[in-house]
Amino acid sequence: MSHETNTSIELEIALLIRRLTSISTSRKFGTLDRSAYLLLGQIESHGSAGVKALAEEFRLDISTVSRQTSALEQKGYVYKMPDPEDGRAYFYQLTDEGRRMLLETRAQRTERIDELLKDWSEDERTRFGELLAKFNRTYLDD
């Protein structure tokens, strides 16, 4: 891949991040903030998750994830369940309110993506989704 291609990709990613950030501050891009949305989504997809697993998934410090999950617990979006194999550890699970907020935010975000991609063909949307997923997976292999 040429240097020019990589430079173009880097610029487009930077612009995308900037636009997504400005959308979320000027026009709410869902009810939950990004970290809450991602954590709740990860917990939902696994049924439950511990702080260590969440930190590994998002490549964050355990202390950061601990603070974020604690905030979710205070809002009533998750609750702790003790790990039966390790009395010091626990897992987070979604509450009904957490699931409701996650689904509400997901619907709002999906609606916004539908608006942005309204002129794209289904094939273009599918390919874009596949390429984004592939790009995100490269970070896991890095």
For this entry, what is the oligomeric state of its chains?
Answer: single chain
Total number of helical segments? 6
Q: Give the rounded overall mean pLDDT.
A: 88
Gross geometry: globular
Q: What is the CA–CA distance across the termini?
A: 18 Å
The whole-angstrom Rg is: 18 Å
How many strand elements? 2
Structural class: mainly alpha
* Helix share, percent: 55-70%
Instruction: Return residue spans where pLDDT drops below 50 for at least 5 consecutive residues.
Output: none
List SSEs in N-to-C order: HHHHEEHH
Strand content: 5-15%
Which strand order do you get reading across the main beta sheet? 1-2
Feature tags:
2 strands, mainly alpha, globular, two-stranded antiparallel sheet, about 140 residues, single chain
